[in-house]
Write a structure and sequence with these properties.
Elements (H helix, E strand, L loop, with lengths): L1 E6 L7 H11 L3 E5 L10 H6 L2 E6 L7 E6 L4 E5 L12 E6 L2 E7 L9 H23 L3 E6 L23 H13 L2 E2 H5 L25 E5 L7 E6 L1 H4 L10 E5 L4
Parallel strand pairs: 1-2, 7-8
Antiparallel strand pairs: 1-12, 2-4, 3-4, 5-6, 6-7, 8-10, 9-10, 11-12
């Protein structure tokens, strides 16, 4: 089973790129972030023609998350996170796909930091952690997938010293990610590639992609019951090289069938 994550950065403007990538790679489940459209403008029919059923939580102009499933309907289990009833941002959706529970997330950016946006990011991280604890307690095979807006280690950023005060790399955020690891989650990509420089995002300016001045901010956290089935991971960097593409590249993992 291939599970992918792709911050599409505007699904309707990049629908052709998305569908071509789906046709090329045929992942079994896909977590999309930054849909940047309201629910009524989500291109469900186009994705259905491409072989994918979907659930989604849109938001006009901003945010938005979706889970696509090839050849079957994803079974929604939750949307949104508990703990902040007034939070109207579309950043979390969860579903069962082919026997795996998948939480698709788009964690807040948090800049400028310090400030209210950074405070919101830390609160959201804690709410995610609480949901994560409940999922771990269920002992189900679970993957938390998406754009975490965190570089966990210096190996995950091309020039660490330039990012010390950024909300994606501040110690509070890296600590929050580390606390989830302590809870029992495993960073799947780093688990398979402990010593490699792997990036999933490159800014649009200053030829960041051409210089490989990237960040690894798109992650897969796997529960202990799913981790033994992890076999492979990769980044489809060639999608980032296309004209009019997202500033993220699709990232994926391979999960063996349950024994």
């Amino acid at each position: 089973m291939r599970i992918a994550s792709y911050n599409i950065n505007g699904i309707n403007g990049r629908l052709g790129i998305l569908i071509d990538w789906l046709d090329e790679t045929q992942p079994d489940a896909v977590c999309l972030q930054e849909l940047k459209c309201d629910d009524g403008k989500f291109p469900a029919s186009a994705l259905e023609k491409a072989g994918y059923a979907a659930i989604w939580q849109g938001q006009k102009s901003w945010n938005g998350v979706a889970i696509l499933s090839r050849g079957r309907e994803p079974v929604e289990t939750q949307r949104g996170l508990a703990g902040e009833a007034e939070d109207g941002q579309s950043r979390y959706i969860e579903a069962a796909v082919n026997g795996v529970l998948i939480g698709c997330l788009y964690l807040p950016n948090g800049n400028p930091a310090p400030g209210p946006k950074f405070d919101y990011k830390l609160r959201w991280f804690e709410r995610l952690r609480e949901r994560g604890k409940a999922l771990l307690a269920s002992e189900a095979p679970v993957a938390l997938v998406g754009d975490f807006n965190v570089m966990p280690t210096e190996r995950d950023v091309y020039a660490p010293d330039r990012w010390r005060d950024d909300a994606l790399f501040r110690p509070e955020v890296r600590k929050a990610f580390g606390e989830m690891i302590k809870d029992g989650w495993t960073d799947a990509v780093r688990n398979l590639h402990p010593d490699e420089n792997i990036y999933t995002f490159w800014k649009y300016w200053r030829q960041s992609f051409e210089r490989d001045a990237g960040l690894r901010i798109d992650h897969f956290l796997l529960s202990p019951t799913l981790l033994p089935r992890l076999t492979e991971s990769g980044v489809d960097r060639h999608i980032r090289a296309l004209e009019g593409t997202s500033d993220h590249a699709p990232v994926w993992i391979e999960i063996a069938d349950a024994g």
